[in-house]
Design goal:
- By secondary structure, the chain is mostly beta strands.
- The protein folds into two domains: about 25-185 and about 265-605 and about 615-735 and about 810-835, TonB-dependent receptor, beta-barrel domain (Maltoporin, Chain A, Beta Barrel), CATH 2.40.170.20; about 195-255, no CATH class.
- Helices cover about 5% and strands about 50% of the residues.
- The chain has eight helices and 42 strands.
- The strands form ten sheets. The protein has a 19-stranded antiparallel sheet. A five-stranded mixed sheet has the order 3-8-9-6-7.
- Strand 38 (about 790) and strand 39 (about 795) form a beta hairpin.
- The relative contact order is 0.12.
């Protein structure tokens, strides 16, 4: 614009957002960094892009959006626990979950609800630790993947770190009010393909027609040309074919699809209300959320009520900054008996698959209307009755709060103090009624009540120094101290044998047999941390990290460990090294060491127990005392992982197309394993440092801004990862059994082995081929050295023996891939997310 002397000119200027993919500033451990200055492996998920469609949990925002990050749920219930693996598992017996950090404060991923009664998993299946958060409150999620990026978190970062930043008040002025609501419906994508009542009647009638009793009362093989379906496993003295005539009397007149009977179209209601405002110096944001989510199985669901407050204040001419974040939630869970109890009754789904389809859900007789049950059965249960009659309720009240005070001491030097509190109170109420046969088998009705409290206190003190020296050199350093304390208490009361089901679990004392127990634990973690970043002309960057951790869980002399990390990057697009279509091209390399303290407190010590089991004879009269219940390990120390990472980040056409390619290797040593100890000892096993494990992988991520113009944007992204792990050493052990398979007839069978030279999750068992049409025996693959093996097939027995067991694969995916797409056109939004492995 040119203005002549003494004249005036009016100009109109409009600004448009730059069309780019990369975020300018990224949240990292204990601070933020410019995107171009990051030297480690970091993936950022924007809430604006991820919180689209029906998103009920924060972990859904991560799925298929970060390469090398695999999200799976342990079951299909609303609010079910999930497992997030960052670059595969790096431990055998310890947790492989990443560290979660919410608004700068690490949280402990411990189950907040006690377990159920044998049907909820052993150990108990944890609920989602991020259930307390409302996805609408999330600003961004950052995943720190390599050791150079996670080393600042030291001992708890061997499995990666997930940083969750919540929304803050961004503008001043009068209050703004936002309300958002949706209703969603879901149903099973595919149900079990079960036989119909007609097909079942035809089959039973045909089998009864082929039955003939011999002189001993057993059935003989008749006729000789029977199909393989009539051949059953029995010895020569009582071999039989067909079904006894009494099976005809078990046929009913109904036509029940039991898979359909336990399923429903589930409805989800979600309501969000938020207030934000303030002045130039003081700003606030408050939000309320209510969500009720039905499960696709009857009598199963979740209800969440959540409130959140965030406020900031500036003082002393902005030299002092204060902040507070408080999140409180109440989550109510309604469970069903979905899992199988080893060797006994199956859960809802197991029974739905095998229950008689010719019988109805309910029957009406002289006693009234009640659920149909197979007379005298000890293993089959009406699945609808299991879901509706058994009470299993859980509640979690959780409060996550932190307060921060930050002050500029001198130019470039800032001090910060953060105090965090994470309290979770969980409860569980269970009742197996007399009205249900399962309750009768447990002793005439069983009631159990749990109460559990998890309490975490965290204190952080940080000093941050930033200085730009001339135009070439930049320094960014942080040092600090962190103290964390975790306390857990658990109490349980149980009663068996009740006259009435009316009181449910509210009258434990009226039971015939009473039982109670309690448990408590305390652990502490003390840390000293430091990080230094140096940049030269925005072209070369070097980062060094050093953290010194001390954990109360380990033995004397082994409580402390040092976790260093170093990384560097070179921006080839700066200084004219690379030209052409590249708007950004960067090489990265890093190394770091991390730890894993994922064992229970007091594991290194010998524990003592008192009570009736600990009595001593004194003058021929038993006297109470204490006895040891565990084997101490005075040499127990940290499990450690060394990780190497090489990567290339690139941007094309003004960063409208951006991505990265990375290769990493993780070597874990001093694995914490539970191993047997020779007798005589007070326990059969103890935790020792044994073994080595290696992970290797390649990751690819692409993000593209395909269209960016007024009224329309179109973004798409792709993530792809390949990961391989191998057990290198197990010390004196040839293998360790794992992967218990529970269920009717299983009796907790081992399905996996951990063996040197093989991957974690390796399946080990017999290879089933087919059924012999003559003998009716199952046929398994075998070797020539196995008795009765002909042409690689067993011929003389119907059950496998030890010689028939082989490695039959592993549970690790060959690859994982995710594709996300989002199109905004005016007020319309179209998005989809696909993932596969």
């Amino acid at each position: 614009v040119t203005v002549t002397a003494g004249g005036t000119t009016t100009a109109q200027v409009s600004l448009a957002p730059a069309a780019a993919i990369l975020e300018p500033v990224v949240v990292t451990g204990y601070g933020t960094q410019r995107r171009e200055a990051i030297t480690g492996s970091v993936s950022t998920v924007s809430a604006a892009a991820a919180n689209v469609g029906v998103v009920t949990n924060v972990d859904q925002m991560i799925q298929a959006r970060a390469a090398g990050v695999e999200v799976t749920r342990n079951n299909g219930e609303p609010g079910a626990g999930m497992q997030i693996l960052v670059r595969g598992g790096s431990s055998i017996s310890n947790t492989n979950e990443p560290l979660y950090v919410i608004d700068g404060v690490p949280i402990y991923n411990q189950p907040t609800e006690p377990p159920s009664y044998g049907v909820g998993g052993t150990p108990p299946l944890p609920r989602n630790p991020l259930n307390l958060l409302n996805p609408s409150d999330i600003q961004s999620i950052t995943v720190l993947k390599d050791a150079s990026a996670t080393a600042i978190y030291g001992s708890r970062a061997a499995n990666g770190v997930i940083l969750v930043e919540t929304k803050k008040a961004a503008v001043s002025g009068g209050p703004t009010i936002e309300y958002d609501s949706y209703v969603a419906a879901s149903s099973p994508a595919k149900r079990l393909d079960l036989v119909t009542a007609g097909e079942y009647r035809t089959f039973v009638t045909a089998q009864v027609g082929s039955w003939r009793a011999d002189s001993t009362g057993f059935s003989t093989r008749h006729p000789p040309a029977d199909t393989i379906f009539t051949k059953h496993f029995a010895d020569s003295s009582n071999a039989f074919a067909g079904l006894v005539p009494s099976h005809l009397t078990a046929l009913g007149a109904a036509n029940t699809d039991w898979a359909d009977a336990i399923s429903r179209t589930a409805v989800t209601h979600n309501h969000d209300l938020s207030f934000a405002g303030g002045s130039e110096d003081t700003r606030y944001r408050a939000s309320l959320n209510y969500m009720k989510q039905q499960g696709v199985t009857i009598s199963n669901g979740l209800e969440r009520i959540q409130g959140r407050l965030s406020a900031t204040h500036k003082a002393l001419d902005n030299r002092m900054r204060l902040g507070v974040n408080v999140t409180t939630s109440r989550v109510n869970n309604q469970y069903i008996v979905f899992e199988n109890r080893g060797g006994f009754e199956g859960g809802v789904f197991q029974n739905a698959a095998v229950y008689n389809p010719t019988q109805p859900v309910t029957v009406t007789d002289a006693l009234g209307t009640h659920y149909y049950e197979v007379p005298g059965s000890q293993s089959l249960r009406n699945p609808v009755a299991l879901a509706n009659q058994i009470t299993d309720l859980g509640q979690t009240t959780r409060t996550l709060a932190n307060g921060t005070a930050e002050i500029d001491l001198v130019p470039g030097l800032t001090g910060q103090v953060t105090v965090g509190l994470d309290y979770a109170g969980g409860g569980r109420q269970i009742y197996f009624p007399n009205a249900n046969p399962l309750g009768g088998t447990l002793g005439g009705g069983l009631a159990r009540v749990y109460s559990q409290d998890n309490n975490t206190k965290t204190v952080q003190t940080l000093l941050t120094f930033r200085r730009q020296v001339g135009e070439s050199h930049s320094f960014d350093m942080v040092g600090g101290y962190e103290y964390s304390e975790f306390k857990k208490t658990l109490a349980m009361g149980q009663g068996i044998g009740y006259v009435t089901d009316v009181t449910l679990y509210n009258s434990l004392g009226s039971g015939n047999t009473l039982k109670d127990s309690s448990y408590g634990e305390l652990s502490k973690l003390v840390s000293f941390l430091s990080r230094a970043n140096y940049g030269f002309k925005d072209r070369f960057f070097v980062t060094g990290v050093l953290r010194y951790d001390g954990s109360s869980k380990f033995a004397e002399g082994h409580k402390w460990a040092l976790f260093p990390g170093v990384s560097a990057s070179w921006r080839l697009t700066q200084g004219g090294v690379v030209r052409g279509p590249f708007s950004d091209l960067r090489l990265r390399v890093g190394w770091g060491r991390q730890g894993n303290p994922g064992i229970k407190p007091y594991t290194s010590l010998q524990k003592l127990e008192g009570g009736s089991n600990a009595s001593y004879p004194w003058s021929d009269v038993p006297q109470p005392g204490v006895i040891p219940t565990s084997v101490a390990n005075p040499d127990l120390k940290w499990e450690q992982t060394n990780q190497y990472d090489v990567g290339v980040d690139f941007g094309l056409f003004g960063n409208r197309l951006a991505g990265s390619v990375e290769y990493y290797t993780k070597n874990t040593s001093d694995l914490l394993l539970e191993v047997p100890v020779p007798p005589p000892q007070p326990a059969a096993t103890r935790i020792e440092n044994v073994g080595k494990l290696r992970n290797r992988g390649v990751e690819l991520s692409l993000d593209a801004l395909l269209v960016s113009r007024p009224g329309m944007t179109w973004r798409t992204g792709l993530v792809f990862a390949v990961e391989r792990n191998k057990v290198l050493d197990l010390g004196p052990h040839q293998f360790i059994r794992s992967g218990i398979v529970s269920g009717q007839g299983q009796s907790d069978q081992w399905a996996e082995r951990i063996m040197p030279g093989f991957a974690l999750g390796t399946f080990y068992g017999p290879v089933f081929l087919d059924v012999d049409p003559v003998t009716g025996f199952q046929v398994f693959a075998c070797t020539a050295a196995t008795a009765g093996c002909v042409n690689g097939r067993t011929t003389t027995r119907g059950v496998p023996d030890a010689a028939d067991y082989h490695v039959i694969g592993d549970a690790n995916p060959d690859f994982t891939i995710g594709l996300h797409n989002q199109l905004n056109w005016g007020k319309f939004n179209i998005s989809f997310l696909m993932r596969a492995s």
